[in-house]
Amino acid sequence: MRSFIFSAIISLILASCSGPADIKMSHTLPPIYPDYIDVTIPVNVAPLNFLMRNGPDNMVVTIKGSKDSITIKGTQRIEIPLKKWKALLTAEQGRNLSVCVKAYLNGEWIQYEPFYWHVKSDRIDPFLSYRLIEPGYEVWNKVQLVERHIESFDERVIADNNLTDGTCMNCHIYGNQNASLSMFHLRGKNGGTILNRYGKLRKINTRGKEMLSNAVYGNFHPGGRYAVFSTNIIIPELHAYRSERLEVYDTASDLIVIDFDKDEVITQPFLSDSTALETFPVFSADGKWIYYCVAPAIPLPDSIKLLKYNICRVSFDAENGTIGLKADTLWNARKMGGSVCHLKTSPDGKYLLYTVADYGTFPIWHREADLQLMNLKTGEIDRLKVVNGPNSDSYHSWSSNSRWFVFASKRDDGIYGKPYICYIDSTGKAFKPFVLPQRDPSVYDNTLKSFNIPELAKGPTPFDAKDIERVYWDQEVEQVK
Amino acid sequence: MKIFSIDKLLSLVFGLMVFAFFAFLYPFHLNYQEQYQLFLFSPDYFFQFVAKPGGFSDFTGNFFTQFFFYSWVGAIIIAILFTLLQRTIWFISQQLGAKPLFMPITFIPSLLYWGLLCDENYLLGGVVVMLLTAASIGAYTLLKGNRVRIFFVLLLIPLLYWLVGGAFLLLPLFVIIREIMKREIKIIHLILFTLGCVALSFALPVLSKTYLLQYPMRQAWIGVNFFRFPVIIPVSIGLIGLLIVFIPIILHFLTVHIKKNRKILIFVVQLVVLLSGGYLFIRQVADMEKEEVMAYDFNVRMRKWDHVIALADRKTPTSPLSVTCLNLALAKEGLLADRMFYYYQNGIGGLIPDFTRDFTIPMMVGEVYYHLGFINTAQRYAFEAMEALPDYQKSVRAVKRLAETNLINGNYTVAAKYLHLLQKTFYYRVWATKALITMKDENLIAQHPEWGWLRQCRTKDDFLFSEGEKDMMLGVLFRQNSENRMAYEYLMAYTLLIKDLKHFVQYFPLGRTLHYKAIPNSYQEALMYIWEKTNTDPSKEILYPINPLTKQRIKAFERISPHQIDPDPKLFDAFTNTYWYYLQFRK
Fold it and tell me: ipTM of this model?
């Protein structure tokens, strides 16, 4: 009797491992969401949980590597066990995982065509910060800066406007993907630019004399002493046509560098006159250049569709804190037929990643906005066809090893932005991106928030929302000169 | 029948009065409340609330508020909650030995909260807080053993904090007073217990702020959204809470000290004071002007255009938002051009008010843009109204509108996102499911009486919407679809309301494509006015087919109007419904 029970248990276990019998083979790929079909993933990413769009009663997913496999059961979605997933990815780095989906639908089991996950041993920086905000127009409600651990599903709020008098806060950016060097602008009467420099939090009023506005779009110098910013007079307008949404443009914009050691503003007359609109400046990986977008000033909004930004660069001397006198044009908007924003140099100095829209300076509401990659040595441009989606693909951030970048994409619905992760190999070839995995994949269906300005970092930021609350209410603002 | 056996009857009468007030006199305040939340039957929604102190009460308040879609259901809910609150206070009072003689006093907290709910920004979660707190106190009064009571309270305090937020303080306050009165616990134990309660009471909000929540300290203390604007500390709520604690104690002392032979007099005096005071209080706090605006808005939201016009026929609206609703209803019924000046008009503010960063005006004005065919502007207004909600809730009305605008614009993925949310609601589930089915078939959308038409009204060219140039926007919209009668009539109304007769004359011929059977009244009046002012040859007749009566009336009007700087209104009784009157006398 005992041996019979033992045999029965063993048989049951074996039956459950081998999956359902009487399976109908389908020659289509499974209708899964998010689209994780044949994507390239880093060895240290959290499980790629997904759901089935065709609403099966049950599903069985087998993720198979060369040595081991995981089988997960679910109803309409699966949640892959984190420990097993990590072990599998570690064992299979550099190889492919096949994913076999079987679904019980309309009274029968269907096995779909398998797809693959290509596991890269190049690690992605494990922390990602983004701003969670409703993709609105001019009024904001709850705004949070959140830090997500990419290797798990842990999330931490690092700033929350509920604690800061409901004030608006702009997106959090890192210097050199270093969590100890970061900043964001906190608006409101007690606000300022919150500078996290090696663990010390400062609140700085970045508006010096004769500046158009406070600092807006910025980027750290690799040395951490300087940051380059644009100052902008920003005007939002509403499109009347179909699915067009907002047009946000600058009626004036300049470029400045702030020396955080001296709290001084450095500028150059040709970067702060009214004949041109300069914006989205970044330093090169070696800190010797400032790349920025620039367009000639034209009557706005009447000529909005003629507003096209070029990519230029100007030298920067970090030792003396001076900006060069002459700019070079790297990307000519007139010739290329578009308008550039969101420049980001790769940490290895090889590439410049940027967003191109038909016109203007606010690509997040431009459906045609796509990413492009410029090889800074050869000037070659890759239009990243495999990366770009049907809707806006815009803000991006590199991983410190230059093998991965994350970018905000509205490809799913045109409104709600999500962080997508993309691999670039050593030759500069880009691979199909995938959305940041979530413990519950239906999060993206249900959330009314956009994930804005995703930024990768090597470690966790040394502050949290309560620190920001304290800085906002109690810390004196420091004024730049 | 003994007089004091009527306590249940009094509670019933009170409940019926509350019901009657909210069901028949104040129903639109309840509809107003319902639209500014999105109660979802989903685990995520529940956990999002219960993850913070007081969230359970907010959740329960929202659960009840969703039923305010039908105001009579809302009135029943409020009546039951207030009656339960009164009955619980009465129960506590009885436990403390209060005699039925003073029962009317137990109505005061419910009566005061009734007054608070007359303000549309007080939320129902607060009533749940009072009820749960009172129930906790009531449960405490049932316990006999000293140790049992003490441990019960010490265990209940953290739970109550989580359920009702800062109002949990009322429990230890009551308990300490009660135990001092009872003198059943040794003084040293009582002191220790008091210290324990005080320590716990301070520790809970501080601990929750430190370890659990990213909320301001103020919110950790208060917890519940009693008021739609969380920054406002509800002192009045605190006073009502204190009454829950002190009324039973006061009744205890009154019972002990009042002489028996004045029972009936005391009871009658209490009832009279309560009734007359309650009447005056509710009359004072009820804002019937807002109720009127809300009535207009609700009927617009429900597309009950005839109801809107009927409201105006009963009493001419004067507030810009009511007039906005009326003009929209007139336009939807095809009466705007004929009858808009039959009613009071207050300029552009009553046609298309300007955008403001709040949650009420954009919601109402968005209706105008939506029905005109400015789908993107309507979408923006719905979005902004929802974002402007100070208590961080979502608005079911705004989400529904966003689903519609995205559906009309062909953004089916986004529309589906909103519709799936609405499928998790009680009242909008069926509508959302139908919309999802319609969305799958372009023909069904085209045949839809509203969406199909609005799709045709949308602009075919892109331009940046300029709120400061509404007439230009209306002109562009009409040019895109020359059958959009509402756009034309709004354009004409715009010129008439700003008294821009030059542009009125310029735009008037555009209406040719609409094939009016006769020139609408207000246009006839404007045309006649212009003719009278510009024609120098008495032998000439105006070229437009003007009603002879209108011709006669303008002559009569002109006879009395030119020399009247501050006219006697009686003289113009016959003309207040004309454009000439508006032109001459409305500022």
Answer: 0.89
